[in-house]
Amino acid sequence: GEPTYILGIETSCDETSAAVVQDGRVVLSNVIASQADIHKRFGGVVPEVASRRHVENITLTIEEALTRAGRTLDDIHAIAVTYGPGLVGALLVGVAAAKAISFARGIPLIGVHHIAGHIYANRLVEEMRFPLVALVVSGGHTELVLMKAHGEYEILGETRDDAAGEAYDKVARALKLPYPGGPHIDRLAREGEPRVPLPRAWLEPDSYDFSFSGLKSAVLNTLHNASQRGETIDPADLAASFQDSVTEVLVEKTIRAAREYGARQVLLAGGVAANRGLRERLQQRCEAEGVALVIPPLSLCTDNAAMIAAAGYIHYQKGQFAGLDLNGVPGLPL
Ligand code: KG4
Ligand code: ZN
C-alpha cells in the first residue's frame, strides 16, 4: 500500500532531534542537534540550560528533518513525540512543538516512551523476531526488557541505583577523565588488564535487576587506599577491571533471560551500546548460545528521533493516538 510517514521528535535530555521515518523501518532523515559541548563545561547535563537550548533549536531541527527527507508536513501521517521519561522542562519543548503542529495542521499525535524508542532503534536495522530480550543501557537507564509482540514490554530487571552509563561517568570523573566518561574508560580499558579485584553485583540468584553503586564505591576506595599507602594503581588496569565487572553482569543476566524466555533475538540499545567491551562480550555469548544479536549503528543507539518515529509507528498501526492534553511525564513507566 501507500507508505506511511511519521515525523519523530525527541527532546528528553540533551539532544534536540527530529526525523522522518517511512513505515517504521526506513530512515529518510534523522537530524540531531547535540548540546553535549555546552554541558561538558559543567560536567553533566544542566536541566535549565537543556530546556532553553531545545527551545532555540526545535523549529529549525524539525524543518531540517522535513527538508532532508524531501517531504513537507502535507506528507506526514502522524507526529510521534517522546513524552517521558526525562527532564520535564526538556520533554515539554518537544511535546509543545508536536502539539502545535498537530493542532495547526490536523495531523494525529502519538506519545512515545523513550525506552520503547531505544528498543525500536533496532527495527531500523533488522525486523524484530519475538520473543526477544532487549538490554537498554544509557546514562539514565539500565533495563532488561522482554517483548513477546510489537508494542508490548515486560521489564525483567532494572537498576536499583546508578544507570550503567552513570557509573561509567562517575568512575571516569574519579580518574580525572572528561565528561561524558564512558568512551574514555572504554578506550583506557583496552590498554590495561582486569587485574584489580572488584565486586560483581549479581543480587538475588533469580534477580534480573542491576546495581552499580557498590562497584563505583569499590573503585573509589581502591584509588583512595592506594594513595594512602603511597602506591599507584595503573588507571588502565582499573578501567579494564571496572569494565570487566560491568559487562560481565550485564551480559550474563541478558543471556540468562534469553535462555529462560527462549528469545529468538537479543537487542542492545542506548548510549552504552557504544562500549566495545560490552559489544564483544555480548557477541561472543550470543554466538555460543545460538541467539541472534542486533546492535544498531552508534548514531541510532544514542538519543535520536528516528527511533521515536519507529516506535510511534506501532502506535499508529494500533490506532493509539494522544490528545492535545498530552504532557511531559518525567517518571513515565514503560
Ligand atoms: O543514550 P545516551 O546517549 O544518553 C542517555 O543517557 O539517554 O547515553 C549516554 C551515556 C553516557 O553515560 C556515556 O558515558 C555512555 O552513554 N557511553 C559509554 C560509551 N559511549 C557512551 N559508556 C561506556 N562505553 C562507551 N564507549
Ligand atoms: Zn536515551
Automatic annotation (TrEMBL):
Gene3D superfamilies: 3.30.420.40. The keyword DNA-binding does not apply. GO terms for biological process: tRNA threonylcarbamoyladenosine modification. Its cofactor is Fe(2+). InterPro entries: ATPase_NBD (IPR043129), Gcp-like_dom (IPR000905), KAE1/TsaD (IPR017861), TsaD (IPR022450). Substrate binds at residues 136-140, 169, 182, 186, 275. Required for the formation of a threonylcarbamoyl group on adenosine at position 37 (t(6)A37) in tRNAs that read codons beginning with adenine. Is involved in the transfer of the threonylcarbamoyl moiety of threonylcarbamoyl-AMP (TC-AMP) to the N6 group of A37, together with TsaE and TsaB. TsaD likely plays a direct catalytic role in this reaction. This is tRNA N6-adenosine threonylcarbamoyltransferase. It comes from Brevibacillus thermoruber.
